[in-house]
Every structure is written in structure tokens, then in C-alpha cells.
Design brief:
The protein has 520 residues and is an alpha+beta fold. The chain has 17 helices and 21 strands. The protein has helices at 14-27, 57-64, 69-75, 113-117, 126-130, 133-138, 163-177, 223-228, 295-310, 312-317, 354-368, 374-404, 412-417, 425-433, 453-462, 478-501, 505-515, and strands at residues 7-11, 36-41, 79-81, 83-87, 97-101, 158-160, 181-184, 187-192, 198-203, 208-210, 213-216, 233-235, 244-251, 262-268, 271-277, 281-288, 321-324, 328-330, 334-335, 338-340, 346-347. The strands form five sheets. It has a seven-stranded mixed β-sheet with strand order 5-4-14-15-16-13-17. It has a six-stranded mixed β-sheet with strand order 7-2-1-11-20-19. Strands 8-9-10 form a three-stranded antiparallel β-sheet, with no helix packed on it.
Length: 520
């Protein structure tokens, strides 16, 4: 029977559930004349509340939902994120650091500056040569002025946020402004239709909840796609080893201290530590491989890191949230009339905020490709599965790139990461191509890549990779060389000008909280 898709049921709240709900409601009429969107979440489940870094796509996601950036900053302990800073990933020495900025290289669509930077690699880092952002981060500056419009700025940016406050903020917005129906209840069972679809959910206090499309946002529990449909996980631990994390909330010793406008990722013996600055605290965590280190050793290593900034006494007293996961994703993400989003679909590791990007892109594709009826759903599901299988593999390539170029050899963890057997074949092919040519648009298979080739350039050359001269060199292009030098000069000039007038990160946040940003 070919029925219209009118009732959408999202199971699970948190960032995933409410981002899906808000994205759908922002695009589709909600109510009797359109689709009816219902979100049911258990009152007994505590949010994981770890993912506090985002990607610049979050700006367009929030803007489309009709959210005020000023209110978002005020309500969710928000700080701005302009980049990821990687410390001790390459050599492990104290001066080993580089940035992956969100701003594209100057003249990006005009000229591949990575080619022309090679001759200057001993004079200036790639990120400093091609964009202003790493200097902004190094000086704890903001990405915009208080006079900037909401969601606008002089540099590309995303956010650091309090995940628990963010979920509550989204819930309030979706219910009050987008008319999402909210049910606080436990799902006790799943009832199937004759064709294998989910017909309804049995709830503890609200009877049967019927729907045409069900979105599984139940996290690692994966009630629908995992427990009901038994869709298996595809392990990716052969490529990316991390399978546990310790997370903590750490106060600032000085409430007016500078706030980093980048995630700090510091390599450890068997993983890495994230350090995220919010307005009132830091979110810090150690993600590691239990194959390479014990939980007790990881605990000690993490406390040693915290001791550097908050002292030994406070580091010893800090309580950790312990998380275990199996790196991988579902074999398919859309099965029958059920689609999984967020942790229910899979999780690799928190590097580069890849998990929340997938939530946003999943929500967007579900909304933009929302099937009109059950027949169309089969086609959309097939397309969705193909797109997201590719995206997961693309993410794995990008994350693995951070590890495979390391020169660290003091622990088996880093040695194993550089073993060719642990490198996906598709990444090995890219690295072979990049021996003699820098990453460029030809390396992008899809028009909307999660991480553009510029991101690969920032990691590749931040990690000291050297693209060699071709055995048979190309003909000289004096015009391109001249234009490259002009662009390098323009970037240096702009960097110096902006650094003189841009506010510090903390000052910007304080002014936004007091005065607000200009509405678009």
C-alpha cells in the first residue's frame, strides 16, 4: 500500500533528535496541512553531553531554524571555534604544533596556493601563508566584531558549546517556535506492519504512537535500527583504534582569562586529549585505545595533563565521565521506514567534530529529500545509504590522515597507526598521488564534501608532508607565480590589519552578552 508520508516520529532527544526536528520543521509545514513532527524522548536517560565542538555548517543550520545567534551565545555558554590546533602530533616535541583553520586559503577558487607555498615552506607555515585565521587563534582573538551581523564575520567559524544546555535550548525553540509535538515517555516496544515497516511504538504512558517515518536518535542504545531491525555495525577499528574516552569539566582558575578560539588537540601515548574553552569552563577529554593502554594508565596520563593548568590537587580531585564505544557505523542507515541519525548510526571518534557534522547533513538530506509517499521512500533510502556510506569512508580517510604522517615512535599506538595495513586503500592512493601533486578539486568526488581539499592541505602540510617536484616538470607559468605572490602579500597585509582592530575572544563574547549582535 502506497501511503503518503504525513507522520514523522523522532525517537530520542539530545542534539541529534532536536537538530533533526528543527531542520524538518524549518522546511516543511508542520500540522494538519503538512507533516506532523513528533519527538519522543525518555525522561530517564541522561545526555552524554560530551560533544562540545562543531563545524561551520552549524551556522547555516541554526540560521535556517530561525535561531538568534545572540540568544544562542547567551544561553548555551557558547564560545567561537575558528580552528583545530594540533600539538605534538608530528614529532611529539614541545614546539610541534599546527592549525587546521576553517577559513579557506586566499584566492582558493582562483589558484592552488599549496603549489606555490612549497618554495617557502621553511619560512612560513602553510596556514599562516594562506589565511588570517591561525594568527587570530594564536592571539586568542575573535572571528568577528560586535558590529558584525549575526552569523557573519571576518573569518569562518563555528562554535564550542555546552552540549546539555544546547539540547535544552533546541528543545525550547522547537516546541515554542516550530510547533514540534514533544512527548516525554519511555518506548517499551516496536510494532511491525506486514511489509516489515514500523507501524507504531508502544509507550509507557501514551499508548501507541503511529508514524510513517521513524528517525532513530536513541544514541548508542539504537532502539530501532539496532535492536529492532538488527542492522549490524561495520567495525572500523582496523583503521582508527580509539574505543574509550574520559571526559571532564574543568573551571577556569581566573574567570577573566583568555578563551582559546580553537579546539586544542594534544597527542598522548595512546590517543589524544581535546581541550575546549567555553565562557565559564573548559571541556577536556582523553580519547584512547584500550588495546594500547589500560584505563588506569589513561586516567593517570589525563590527570598529568590537567595538572599543567589547574594544579595537582585539583587534577586529582576532578571526576571523569567514562565512555566506551566501538568505532564503526551501521551497514545501512535507512532500513524500511526507519533512518538512524547520530550515535545510533555510528561513531568513529571525536576528532574534527565529525559526529555532529554527520547529524547536520543527515537531517538536511532527510528534510530536502523527504519522500512524499512510501514508494518514493525506498528510492530515497537507497540514495541516502549510498551517500552516507561514502561520507563515513571520507571521514575515515580524513581522520586517519592526522595519524599516518606522524613521526612519533615512542609508543606502539603511533607505530601501529603508520603501519600500511592500518591505512585504507583509498587513502593510500591519495597519498601516492600527493607525492608529486598537491591536493586539489580533482580529489573531491562529491560536490558537497564534508572536508574540502583545503582541509586535507592544512593537515598534510601541517604534519610536515613534502610534495616532491615531478620527475618531468611542468612548463613554467610566470603569471601564476606572480599572482600567487600577490595573494600571499594580500593575506599578510590583511592579517596585520585585522590583528590591530579585532577584539579578543573573551571581550567579543562579553559584548555580545551585553549588547547583542545585529540582526540580519
Amino acid at each position: 500500500m502506497n501511503t503518503a508520508v504525513k507522520q514523522i516520529v523522532i525517537v530520542g532527544g539530545g542534539s541529534a533528535g532536536w537538530l533533526v526536528a528543527g531542520t524538518l520543521a524549518a522546511e516543511h509545514a508542520n500540522g494538519e496541512q503538512g507533516v506532523q513532527i513528533t519527538l519522543i524522548e525518555s525522561p530517564d536517560i541522561k545526555l552524554v553531553g560530551v560533544g562540545e565542538g562543531t563545524w561551520p555548517t552549524m551556522r547555516s543550520t541554526l540560521r535556517k531554524m530561525g535561531i538568534s545567534e545572540t540568544e544562542f551565545v547567551r544561553e548555551c555558554d557558547v564560545a567561537f571555534k575558528q580552528a583545530s590546533k594540533f600539538c605534538k602530533w608530528y614529532t611529539g616535541e614541545d614546539d610541534d604544533e599546527y592549525y587546521h583553520p576553517f577559513t579557506l586559503p586566499v584566492g582558493y577558487t582562483e589558484l592552488n596556493l599549496a603549489e606555490h607555498w612549497q618554495a617557502h615552506r621553511d619560512e612560513i607555515s602553510f596556514s599562516d601563508a594562506v589565511c588570517i585565521q591561525s594568527k587570530l587563534c594564536a592571539n586568542d582573538m575573535g572571528p568577528k566584531f560586535i558590529t558584525s551581523t549575526e552569523y557573519g564575520g571576518v573569518a569562518n567559524y563555528s562554535y564550542h558549546l555546552d552540549a546539555a544546555k544546547f539540547a535544552q535550548f533546541l528543545r525550547k525553540h522547537c516546541m515554542e517556535k516550530l510547533s514540534i509535538k514533544h512527548i516525554s515517555d519511555n518506548v517499551l516496544g516496536v510494532n511491525s506492519a506486514e511489509n516489515g515497516d514500523i507501524r507504531s511504538l508502544s509507550t509507557q504512558n501514551n499508548g501507541e504512537l503511529q508514524g510513517d517515518l521513524f528517525v532513530d536518535c536513541t544514541g548508542l542504545a539504537s532502539l530501532l535500527i539496532g535492536k529492532h531491525y538488527q542492522v549490524p555495525m561495520v567495525s572500523k577499528k582496523e583503521f582508527l583504534f580509539n574505543d574509550a574516552a574520559l571526559a571532564a569539566q574543568v573551571p577556569y582558575l581566573d574567570p577573566e582569562c583568555p578563551i582559546s578560539s580553537n579546539t586544542i588537540s594534544t597527542a598522548q601515548s595512546a590517543g589524544w586529549i581535546w581541550d575546549i574553552g567555553l565562557q565559564t569552563r573548559r571541556g577536556v577529554g582523553y580519547v584512547y585505545s584500550r588495546t594500547h593502554i589500560s584505563d588506569e594508565e589513561a586516567d593517570a596520563e589525563f590527570r598529568d595533563y590537567l595538572t599543567l593548568t589547574i594544579g595537582r590537587e585539583k587534577a586529582i580531585a576532578t571526576e571523569f565521565q567514562k565512555i566506551k564505544f566501538n568505532p564503526g557505523h551501521r551497514e545501512v542507515f535507512w532500513k524500511n521506514n526507519c533512518v538512524a541519525v547520530g550515535l545510533a548510526a555510528g561513531f568513529i571518534e571525536p576528532l574534527e567534530a565529525s559526529a555532529i557534522i554527520l547529524i547536520e547533513l543527515s537531517a538536511r538530506m532527510i528534510s530536502e529529500q523527504l519522500p512524499a509517499d512510501r514508494n518514493a521512500m525506498t528510492i530515497v533510502a537507497k540514495r541516502f545509504n549510498e551517500v552516507f556510506t561514502y561520507r563515513w569512508n571520507h571521514i575515515i580517510n580524513f581522520l586517519k590522515l592526522h595519524y599516518v604522517l606522524s613521526k612519533r615512535c615512542g609508543s606502539q599506538y603511533w607505530i601501529d597507526h603508520c603501519d600500511p595495513k592500518s591505512v585504507p586503500e583509498s587513502l593510500q592512493e591519495l597519498l601516492e598521488i600527493w607525492r608529486y601533486q598537491v591536493p586539489w578539486f580533482y580529489d573531491e568526488v562529491h560536490s558537497e564534501e564534508l572536508f574540502p581539499c583545503a582541509s586535507f592541505q592544512y593537515i598534510l602540510y601541517g604534519m610536515g608532508y613534502e610534495t616532491a617536484k615531478r620527475p618531468a616538470p611542468k612548463k613554467p607559468n610566470p603569471a601564476a607565480v606572480t599572482r600567487a605572490h600577490e595573494l600571499f602579500g594580500e593575506n599578510m597585509k590583511k592579517t596585520n590589519e585585522v590583528l590591530k582592530v579585532i577584539p579578543t575572544h573573551r571581550d567579543l563574547i562579553n559584548k555580545i552578552k551585553e549588547f547583542g549582535l545585529q540582526k540580519i
